Amino acid sequence: MNPMNKYEKLEKIGEGTYGTVFKAKNRQTQEIVALKRYRLDTEDEGIPSSALREICLMKELKHQNIVRLQDVLHSDRRLTLVFEYVDQDLFHYLESHKNTGVNPTKVKKFMYQLLKGLAFCHAQNILHRDLKPQNLLLNANGELKLADFGLARVFNVPLQSYSNEVVTLWYRPPDVLLGNKRYTTSIDIWSAGCIFAEMATCEPLLPGIDEEDQLLKIFQLVGSPTEDSWPGITRLPRYSNISGFPPKPIANVVPSLNTTGLDLLLKHLKSNPSHRISAEEALLHEYFTSS
Amino acid sequence: MAGNFWKSSHYGQWIISEERVLEGHERDSKSLSVDDVKKLHIFFANFIQALGETNKLRQQVIATATVYFKRFYILNSFKSIDPFLMAPTCIFLASKVEECGPIPIQRLITVCSSLIKSKFNFAMTNDFLYRPQHVLECEFYLLEMMDCCLIVHQPYRPLTTYSESLGPEVLNTAWHIINDTLRCDVILTHPPYLIALSALHMSSVIHNNENAMKWFSELTISIEKITQVSQQIIQLYELWRGFDEKKEIPGILFRMPRPRMSHSGSLSGSRCSTPSGMR
Questions:
Q1: I want to staple B255 with a disulfide (CB 3.0 to 4.6 A). Which of A120, A159, A271, B31 is the partner?
Q2: Is a pLDDT exceeding 80 seen at residue B1?
Q3: Residues facing residue A35 across a β-bridge
Q4: Above 90 in pLDDT, residue B127?
Q5: CA B144 to CA B275: how far, in whole Å?
């Protein structure tokens, strides 16, 4: 029997370079799932490395705040990953709350879950590398789950350079933009900070139009880094002198966050990656512990 | 590959009990004795090692491929898939998982057939018959049989962490011992840190390194656990020493049950099973 018959396709919900994502129903259990179908078009590669990477990592990442891989199917030269289906993503959620804003308690709950999922990944030495509202899924119970680990990777394999093209521009940290290729967990922390602010305001924090503009927007917000605040910065491959910007008062930019929230946000948005807070530490921050 | 061992699929799903390993060794007992099966595993570990080295792969990739091979044949009969096809398939999959970029499949097959004609010519009289499509098909069986658990934790990383205080001589011998353990089943039955400690312990004894022995006496892990693993490694060395590969392997391979090849050339071995109770 073709294993694909187990699922009834309902609708297409996404399309990427790797293949297509469908919403589908398990014919036996009636459960709704997401089918991520990889094309196996290169004759010689077998199972594509990107699919293998996702399978490998998802097998190691079983956590309430990470979308669950339920099954892997193959039939007629196609590979299908079966994920739990989650109704909505944060991008659409924020879109629909543009007029009303997101309740501060909800922002706190979402941020806590984002950091929980991230702390789990990082404890496993896995970087997500592409955090953005589109990759954070929200179910009807208000649970947030990290998804789309197609770009993720284990970070202490003995390879130094990763592609510069990872991480959607708006959520990309300055160290990556400046050409630093030694990625650590701090790359996800920067993205989480941008998402934190975006949840509070329903507007992207740093919507750059290209890499240069992105760096400019970053330094206009958090202030220009110097050799003092970030030793080694002037030696980074794409360093150019963007000096002289003072940090903007963050309370003006994200007025809906309280003082502890703003403090936590600033600890995510440090230009120098080694100064950024860890997910584990962030979970213990006063913003979450005080009521 | 990295990650937290205690939360890994390796620990959660793939530490196999010794009883299960024995069951695996007895699966083909109609034609192969338990020692025959152990010798086959030594032979194919050597074959995978040679395949990896000829393709210039890191030891970590070779070790992962060998573990895949062992997982497969502990849970399946040699009849389900020809191990001469499974060996290159394990290398192919491991090279992708360990992110050294996939080996071009045609090259892998060429290396396979030239090894069989040269270094391993005692094992096979006929040519290597498999084509890329066989490896690709076999890759899926392997993936499915392992329930997609592809990240294997190896003793090399804990070894280098522990041995910082023990010096290069002890480390070097221990590293070789770990390479040798790929020829027995400890990597299936015990957590990698314990294998690393056991290899270090054996190495310290060999070098009569007092400093290292003192280090061991201060460990919080019971020495019994470590020597249990060492016992198994010593058993491997005993079997290996009395094993004349060139003389014995042809007979064992002749008795080994094999899948039939169908006319269309596709794999027709009895469908491999997913381990029950391991999901």
A1: B31
A2: no
A3: A22, A82
A4: no
A5: 10
Which among B70, B102, B105 has a CA at the least distance from the CA of B86? B70
Parts of chain A with a pLDDT under 70:
1, 16-18, 41-43, 76, 150-167, 291
Six-digit token pair at A286? 């006063």
Per the CB < 8 A criterion, the answer to whether B85 and B134 are in contact is yes
Mutation target among A53, A60, A64, A69 for the B interface, most CBs of B within 10 A: A60
Residue linked to tokens 């509070």? A200
Tell me which H or E stretch contains B67.
helix B59-75
For B49-65, how does the pLDDT look when each residue is reduced to its tens digit (9 = 90+)? 999 999 999 999 999 99
Which pair of structure tokens corresponds to residue B203?
């190495």
With a cut of 0.90, is the ipTM above it? Answer: no
B3 burial (CB, 10 Å; 0-12 / 13-18 / 19+) is buried
**Subunit contact B139:A60, Cβ cutoff 8 A:** no
CA distances from A125 to A37, A154, B172, B229 (A): 27, 6, 27, 28
> 3-class DSSP state for residue A97?
coil
- Sort out which chain A residues have CB atoms less than 8 A from B2's CB and list them: 125, 154-157
The pLDDT of residue B264 = 45
Per-residue pLDDT averaged across B263-273, rounded? 45
Q: Mean pLDDT of all residues in chain B?
A: 88
Which residues of chain A make contact with B148, given a CB cutoff of 8 A? 55-56, 59, 69, 72
The whole-angstrom separation of Cα B154 and Cα B186 is 11
A99 and A113 Cβ atoms separated by less than 8 Å = no
